[in-house]
């Protein structure tokens, strides 16, 4: 698997940077995703690779490392930054600590629903935030495309959560971003930041009592085998991004960069279609597996509880929040 063909890495990137003539050489872009083969984000990036290979007669291609083979998302971002991999498909939750502008999307209950989030990301604001990644002076990554990830809800191994009171004292894993720890604490639980690669074991061994995620992650990353209660809090609608290593990007011709941007956009559209199917399949599998799904009719107590997070992080995004809320 680690043949020479697949071993595109830092050394090669550095060499290409030094010698643009070599940029016409065959290159295999390593891509990382925490999800398994068949997951919408994995399929969409693979399909980008297939198109790239076809358009360049095999000169450029993508080698997908799915299922956390290269580690969690923090690691994927770091590897893209140094050029050890070319493509990282990661959550904006994990990118927020690298590109602060993105943290506006990590505010709980920011979007009215997933449709609202899609409209925002498809429009001017979506492009601005991709550009904020690309133009960031030190992040070292290019924002290539958005990926849908639905909305995130709570799940746990202990008890059904019928109201916010039931969250009290539960140790709940959140993504590695202080905003989410503060969010979970404000909701009454104990937020524990942890890489995605550790969540299954943490749930299984009782290191945490619960976590929060969308139905496809809950099911296809197997968390539903250990956590039986899923509560439709839908507190976060956090999109995901495909980012490309700037180090590698800078070795590419303008034409190759344009191809990546074009196929990136197409991957974004393809993933959305696949997402809708996966979301439904996940819900069906949850029901078949006997997961207790609690609807939350009144989300107001949850929305009120996260006010401290908005008080702390909202003001510096005031302008952007207004624009996002104005999108119909
Ligand atoms: C999933 C997302 C991953 C990762 C994970 C997590 O929904 O697709 O990119 O962020 O959540 O909770 O860490």
Write structural notes for this entry.
Helices cover 43% and strands 18% of the residues. The model is unreliable at 1-11 and 13-19 (pLDDT under 50). The chain has helices at 10-18, 40-55, 73-82, 92-95, 114-122, 124-134, 178-186, 199-205, 215-220, 246-249, 254-288, 300-305, 307-313, 318-326; strands at residues 27-32, 60-65, 87-91, 141-147, 152-156, 171-174, 190-193, 210-213, 229-236, 240-245, 292-295. It folds into 2 domains: 4-149 and 239-279, D-Maltodextrin-Binding Protein, domain 2 (3-Layer(aba) Sandwich), CATH 3.40.190; 152-237 and 282-326, Bacterial extracellular solute-binding protein, family 7 (D-Maltodextrin-Binding Protein, domain 2), CATH 3.40.190. By secondary structure, the chain is of the alpha/beta class. It contains 14 helices and 11 strands. The strands form 3 sheets. A 5-stranded mixed β-sheet has the order 2-1-3-10-4, sandwiched between helices. Strands 8-5-9-11 form a 4-stranded mixed β-sheet. The chain has a two-stranded parallel sheet with strand order 6-7. Helix 7 packs antiparallel against helix 13 (307-313). The structure holds beta-D-galactopyranuronic acid.
